[in-house]
Amino acid sequence: MIETMLCALITVLPDYLFRRFVQGKRIGHEITLFTMWYELRWGLTTCAILALTVITTLFYFHPASKTAASYFRTVTILPQLGGRVSEVYVRNNEQVTAGQPIFRIEDFTQTAQVEAAHAQIAQVQASLKVAQTDLAEAEAGIAGARAALDQALEDLERNTTLRDEGSSAVRLAEIDRLENLVAEREAQVTAATSKRAAVVQQIEELIPAQLASANAQLDAALTELDKTIISAGVTGRIEQFGLQVGDYVSPLLRPAGILVPSSSGHDRFQAAFNQLSAQVIKPGMIGEIGCMTKPFTVIPVVVVEVQDVIPSGQIRPTDELRDVQTNTKPGSILVYLEPLYESMADDVPPGSNCLANVYTDNHAKLEDENLGFWEKSFLHVVDTIGVVHAAGLRLRLILMPVNTLVLTGH
């Protein structure tokens, strides 16, 4: 409407003034409702063409969006294990910090596993003490076997010497018996040494491995026990939380509530523009937004990113081939906006519905001395009509409360 009125000032109005003061035609006489088209045909035709041209140029170089919002993420409060709730530490709408416990589920099984792991560790430690006793016993056995072997060797050596000297006090059967006794004592020493080596291997390898396995089982049991306490992963506010002691929660079917992170969705807005704006909107462009949660306030923003894909082209493998004709609604260009100045959007709650405009700026191009007259004039016109769009945004913000509360029945 504003564009049409401005175009009428330089088309329809001069045409009427010419008819009135040059040709002497008057409203209500020569110019009536029935003769208006014929009398003002040049002005009306020129006004329509110029208005359409201005509006097209305006919306192309200064895109607008009615669907701008500050999206935020939510974190579902889910346990890693299913079970019944035994304790609840927070209430709904309460602010929590990262790591703060929210609730606990029954931990009888996990506690029993921890106690069993402790018992296993104690058993392994006791077996280490037994093995150390066995080691001392094996060393004593080696000492006794060696002493017996030394005694048998002395007896054999003495009797062998007497035999070699021709003494009649030595019998050959006795020497044979002593030789067999020495072999037996050597075998006893070997057996005692092997027993000691087995005990040493048990102390140095088997028992440490058993202890490491028991400690690993304890760590696993403690990890499972920790899973019974559900804590906040991020700082935020608890929403839709009505959990009571005795309720059953599950990681698949029964979430406990929603956690809204405090830092999510602030100072960042997403706006959807039509596909004609793909070649116009670029990072660094200046824009403005106005939100329903903060009426009568225009927030200067800057384009920080433009999504390089259009969501309507997304496909997911199924058992049916995709028919492009079913995509009747064209997708939009997603643009990320951030406030141009700090603290400008602090009062805008995440999820607010907003209006957005972005403006093409040709100031840098206009400084080029090689531009022709018509090109420079066109760029001046593009920059100038952006003021009309800015005025339109402010007008819509003024009318937003009336439209919402009165005309749409809020």
TrEMBL record:
Q: Which intervals of the chain form a coiled coil?
A: 121-195
Stretches that traverse the bilayer: 40-61
- Tell me which UniProt keywords the record has, alphabetically: Coiled coil, Membrane, Transmembrane, Transmembrane helix
What PANTHER family would the database entry show? P-HYDROXYBENZOIC ACID EFFLUX PUMP SUBUNIT AAEA (PTHR30367:SF12), P-HYDROXYBENZOIC ACID EFFLUX PUMP SUBUNIT AAEA-RELATED (PTHR30367)
* Entry protein name: Multidrug resistance efflux pump
